[in-house]
Amino acid sequence: MSKSSSSTRLGDLAWSKSPKTSSSLFTLTYGVLVNHLCTSSSPSSEVSASLLKIGQNIGTRLIDDYISKTSLLNPSGPSPCSSFTSTAESIAKVGLKMFLGVTADVRVDSDVGYSLVLSQNPLADFVELPDERSDLKYSNVLAGCIKGCLESVGFEVEVEVVKDTVWGDECLEIKVEGKGRRRDELEGGFKDE
Amino acid sequence: MLQSSSPRTSHPLDLPLPRRPGEVSLSAFTLLFSELVQLHQTSASSVSDFESLLSKSGWEVGSRTYLMSSQVQGGKNREIRVLGVLQFLSSTIWTSLFNKKADSLEKSLNSSSEYMIHDSNPLPTIFCEVPSSLSSFNPASFVSGIVKGALETAGFGCEVTAHRVDEGEGNRTVFLVNFCREVMEREEAFV
């Protein structure tokens, strides 16, 4: 419990210190991006995959921002991504808060999996999916971001959007499943002579 | 099929418009913008093509922001004069998108149909560094698209170009708005 409230505090602090911009610019720009991908007339599954890829690109950069800010704000705190289960709290209460100003609830599904439940979807203001795109994973960029971030700190994961407000669900649910650690690169690179 | 059969809990049109816009962090937006730029860069064949794609994206944002801002204003009369709509643009729309007003609005001395909007550091370009191989590319063309989208949706046909001004620090940019002939004829009829 105390761990959770300290994450919340860290998230609030990081949010209050980060420079901000209006969310309508953000959501509309994201809408334009999705629209651009859709007009190149590829099937929804391809658009969803592109969004995941875009999210991953963003995630690999966001993680730098995340680690530098959290270690500045909370220098004595525990390493935010030391274990797979601790990443859930870090994403839900600090990461999402720091970048999008929202927090998520964590539901632990198993030892190697958890779900993040967001009561509101910050990307989906003003969004309505047309019928022919009803299977589009509109918020896949968030899944991609989480995947990119976690892979950058050495966790192999599968991330999937399972519920979304644009599909008519009452919340946005992102399922994160651990597939093991990525050790080889690090061990190879840091061997002592 | 995915949940398409389940009834929508709330349609976007049924929701009230936010009176006060929410906020997201600047890093989130700039990284997203960078992805948009990269996406257009790969599909563009030339620098001018690249700028027009980016400007088209901006058009969509500007058009929607105009519609939203004019609703949030509480159904006041819509702007029908050139100066009125430009002021609405450089104050209300600029604030709802960039959290600040444009630095200044000027009328061109050369032509009665030309107006200039100055911004010392247009938000989307804050962290953009243009490589020398693309030196003629201006990322602020996204913002010029926003300006064009908002003005055209308001019923003021125009061409908008972005020009970097090399003085002082930052990406000082001038957006040159050139209203089309019909708009200027209409404007003269008011006098």
Give a written overview of the molecule:
The complex is a heterodimer of chains A (193) and B (191). Chain A is an alpha+beta fold. Chain A has one domain (2-182): Trafficking protein particle complex subunit 3 (Muramoyl-pentapeptide Carboxypeptidase, domain 2, 2-Layer Sandwich). In chain A, 51% of the residues lie in helices and 18% in strands. A four-stranded antiparallel sheet of chain A has the order 2-3-5-4, covered by helices on one side. In chain A, α1 packs parallel to α4 (84-100). By secondary structure, chain B is α+β, with helices and mostly antiparallel strands. Chain B has a four-stranded antiparallel sheet with strand order 2-3-5-4. Chain B is globular and about 50 Å long. The relative contact order of chain B is 0.15. The interface between A and B is large, with 45 and 39 residues. β1 (20-22) of chain A pairs antiparallel with β1 of chain B. Chain B: It holds the Pfam family TRAPP. Chain B: InterPro entries: NO_sig/Golgi_transp_ligand-bd, TRAPP-I_su5, TRAPP_component. Chain B: It comes from Triparma verrucosa.
Short summary:
Chain B: It is found in: Endoplasmic reticulum; Golgi apparatus, cis-Golgi network. The complex is a heterodimer of chains A (193) and B (191). By secondary structure, chain A is of the alpha+beta class.
